[in-house]
Design goal:
459 residues, mainly alpha, 0% strand
Amino acid sequence: MNEHNRLTAEENRAFYRMAIALVIPMALQNLINVGVTTADVVMLGKVGETALSGASLAGQVQFIMNLIFFGLTSGASVLTAQYWGKQDVRTIEKVFGISMCISLGIGVVFLAAAQVFPRQLMYAFSSEEPVIREGISYLRIVSWSYLPVAFTMIYLNLMRSVERVVVATWTYFASLIINIIGNGILIFGMFGAPAMGVRGAAYATLFARIVELVIVVLYIKWKGNPISLHFKDFVRFDRLLLKDFVVFSSPVVANELMWGLGMSANAAIIGHLGSAAVAANSVAQVSRQLIMVIGFGLAAATSVMIGKVIGEQKLRLAEAYARKFVWLSVGITLAAATGLFLCRGFISGSMTISDQAKDYLNFMLFVVCYYAIFQSYNTTLVVGVFRAGGDTRIGFFVDVIGMWCFSIFLGAVTAFWLHWGVKAVFVVLLSDEIVKIPITTWRYRKKLWLRNVTREIET
């Protein structure tokens, strides 16, 4: 390592103190969020393959919406993290107002689409009528949670950038408990309730999202909260700040949307290969999310810590932090992937799915293990390092090349033209992260992300 970028012993201790304080709550949040999805997958897996496939594919609609929200907050956090380094709280509140206004509008659009065009949305992911029917039942109910999600997800994600992460952990933990209890009662008809199957899973998710909203509203009113929401910030925007918001958020939203549409395209390709493939892929993707919970937490912490020190004009620390976070993310994900590899037989054996689906699942879990390591490396750089310094356009570029020009294109060709088997198609679809590595590594070494993007904003 370059001696100039080496941390002193005191700086090294400070790094790990801050990293642990951020990563553990963020990893727990990711784990809890995945736990909500896992609860649906495990419990609906007990109901049957069709119910599991329908709910999983219907969930792709919210998946795309959530990625747009994540893009908004990731772009906004470029500003909020650096302004937090300057301790400019009033400007941060203005960024919150802009983000909230846009996110609520997006939530309304997705809610309307799910209520008016549910069949058309489901048909994009499957051609099997039983799966489509189950998906429509799930989508019509769960889409009412989109507005609470539009508010709570934006608020809690932006609170991360000002080093307030515990509130999100407790909020999502409460949501997980409500979701699990609701699933048990409403899916299987416990305690005298009717057994509602996939509709019960949708209602349980809706109730959980309402609980999240209530907790967040109470937290906003708490006097110890450093960030307040002002109605005027929702309707009147600072022009320079809005310009910066658009400059940094637009590429990130486009990036997340392209990535999300790419993941949905993968699901659509798999969806047209049969319900056994869909059921196996549903479990495999949840497993991937589980082994990535710390990796995603590290990427988020990377963005916060590097953004803050850049805002403090400590560029040497930013560069040293970036190097440390990359090595940490790869090492931890490697350990998690090894654990999944050892447990893959137990996972497939615990699901009530066909023997063919179990065979697909065992293979998919093996592919997910090595895929996650490459994903962790790229995510730490793109979502953490690059975005922290305002280098937000590169993510869009690498996803267009890696996913759309390579893995998705070749996946569609191998599935629908060459008629390869499910396993071969799955390998092709999960090859994008390998293609991205040379590009992200080159960009990291160029150091274009080492820049302060803050202004002096009138209050």
